[in-house]
Amino acid sequence: MTREFDFYIVPTPIGNISDITLRAVDILKQVDMIACEDTRTTQKLLNHYDIKTKCISYHKYNERERTEFFLNELRNGKKIALVSDAGTPMICDPGSIIVKELYKNGFSVTSLPGACAVTTFLSQLPDAVEEFTFVGFISKSETQIKELVKKYSGQNVVFYDSPERILKTLKTIKDTRGNIKAAIGRELSKLFEEVKSGLISDLLDYYKDGIKGEIVCILYADEAQQDADINYKIEELRAKGFSDKDISVILSTLFKINKNDIYKKVLKS
Q: Which residues of 6-44 are buried (b: 16+ CB within 10 A; e: fewer)?
């Protein structure tokens, strides 16, 4: 038996139309209306699964206006589902405004498990990635890209980018961090799906004639830089009077590293 909610956050396929759960299809059939980014895109999915539920546009340009409408519908006992054009809503898609208001007004909310480009990409990389920082769509600004990759040099960084910009982005990263290791995933779950990893120079050479499809990318952590940053922070915190245990807790949170591993580094320093 499944509990009923007022509002459902429902992931949709990121490419292959078959990548949707049975529960997601059932929910989309059962709710009274579906809030979606582009009604034309969502309608194709609904038609495929013979879902007759009414679609109402909900995107970044009408979020606030639509939120009040949906709240009123919920007060009248309606059930609503939120979808994005592809993948899990609110992961770089609209939805945060309405969800915040739903909790504020006492409505029940749940999110269904389902497709997400980040996890689909990371789970098939040749090098396992358990800890990473996701920054959403990377900035178009060369200055901001440089600042970001310097800031996270000691961490694995995952981001989205467009096929028109990704090669320029990688060149900027290479100029800033050097020829570090990275990986690109494109057209995930589609016919021409491809995941390519290597040094940035390898990726730039491989895609020298251009690249197509939705892009997700990872920059691998510079371990030497991370160790240097950690050692510096250990000395800094110890000088301020923090205990070894406190330093371990602080740095494990800051660097997203296991507390016991950090504690070993603290004791050695």
A: bbbbbbbbbbeeebbeeebbebbeebebbbbbebeebee
The domain limits of the chain are: 7-115, 118-221, 224-268
Give the burial class of 191: count Cβ atoms within 10 A of its Cβ; 0-12 exposed, 13-18 middle, 19 or more buried.
Answer: exposed
Q: What is the pLDDT of residues 161-184, one digit of tens each?
A: 999 999 999 999 999 999 999 999
Domain covering 118-221: architecture:
2-Layer Sandwich (3.30)
**Predicted structure pTM score:** 0.80
7-115: CATH topology: Cobalt-precorrin-4 Transmethylase; domain 1 (3.40.1010)
Is 228's pLDDT higher than 80?
Answer: no
- Cβ partners under 8 Å of residue 117, min gap 6: 14, 86, 87, 160, 185, 188, 214, 216
In the structure encoding, which two tokens stand for residue 209, read together?
């004639």
Structure tokens at 87: 């993948």
CB 145 within 8 A of CB 176: yes
Name the token pair of 143: 């200055």
* DSSP letter assigned to residue 140: S
Burial zone of 98 (CB within 10 Å; 0-12 exposed, 13-18 middle, 19+ buried): buried
Distance of CA 153 to the CA centre of its chain: 19
